[in-house]
């Protein structure tokens, strides 16, 4: 059974968002060799860019906060309230480092357990043909073209494509094309985990 995931699978784990525990369970099942996790190379590179951009934004916010707090702290009546705001400023920096560490840890686990679909010239060319017909953003088209290229090459008997971009990928034509390769489109990671468990039951 092939489990195709995209960038949001990595982000869900790194940011520990609402469905991250299901993503962790999916990853553990694949690490145990009970299913094959397949991820486009682009989906391992894209989170790094998002983390860098977010870290920069948070540092800017922290600097602005510190500048304003240095003025407010001179007012005696504000002193007690400023402490809690200072904790928020510290949290912005601390969260950057914690998320960076989680990204490195999950990236290593994925590289050790998942099959990574290389971003080839053919995939880049095919992705361009998906943008207009399926109304996909260039990033999503690259991911979708990667998944289709892998399905076309290996023809798994059971597969699913897990994502959080239901507004982009939940297109009847995309669903039909995936179904032609025995691949179900599932737009929630917890539902994907449920699908895996149902397929793995004796």
What this model shows, in words?
It is a single chain. This protein has helices spanning 7-15, 20-31, 42-72, 79-113, 121-134, 138-154, 166-169, 172-179, 189-200; strands at 2-5, 36-40, 115-117, 159-162, 183-186. With 202 residues, the protein is an alpha/beta fold. The protein folds into 2 domains: 2-44 and 105-200, Rossmann fold (3-Layer(aba) Sandwich); 53-99. A 5-stranded parallel sheet has the order 3-2-1-4-5, sandwiched between helices. Helix 1 (7-15) crosses helix 4 and helix 2 packs parallel to helix 9. The longest helix is centred in the middle third of the chain and has 35 residues, at 79-113. The two termini are 14 Å apart.
The strands making up the biggest β-sheet line up spatially as 3-2-1-4-5
Outline the biggest β-sheet. 5 strands, parallel
* Helix/strand order: EHHEHHEHHEHHEH
Q: How widely separated are the two ends?
A: 14 Å
Number of helices: 9
In the CATH hierarchy, the third-tier topology of the largest domain is known as: Rossmann fold
**Count of distinct strands:** 5
Query: In the residues, how many domains can be counted?
Result: 2
CATH architecture label name of the largest domain: 3-Layer(aba) Sandwich
What spatial form do the alpha-carbon principal axes imply? Answer: elongated
Helix percent reads: over 70%
């Amino acid at each position: 059974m092939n489990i195709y995931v995209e960038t949001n699978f990595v982000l869900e784990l790194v940011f520990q968002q609402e469905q991250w525990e299901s993503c962790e369970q999916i990853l553990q099942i694949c690490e145990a060799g009970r299913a094959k996790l397949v991820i486009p190379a682009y989906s391992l590179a894209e989170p790094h860019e998002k983390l860098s951009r977010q870290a920069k934004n948070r540092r800017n916010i922290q600097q602005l906060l510190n500048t304003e707090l240095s003025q407010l702290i001179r007012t005696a009546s504000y002193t007690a309230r400023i402490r809690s705001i200072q904790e928020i400023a510290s949290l912005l920096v601390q969260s950057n480092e914690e998320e960076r560490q989680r990204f490195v840890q999950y990236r290593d686990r994925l590289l050790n357990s998942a099959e990574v679909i290389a971003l080839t010239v053919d995939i880049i060319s095919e992705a361009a043909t998906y943008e207009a017909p399926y109304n996909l953003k260039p990033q999503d088209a690259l991911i979708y073209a990667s998944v289709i290229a892998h399905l076309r090459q290996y023809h798994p008997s059971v597969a699913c494509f897990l994502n959080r971009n239901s507004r982009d990928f939940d297109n009847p034509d995309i669903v039909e094309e995936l179904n032609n390769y025995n691949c179900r489109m599932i737009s929630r990671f917890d539902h994907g985990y449920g699908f895996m468990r149902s397929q793995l039951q004796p």
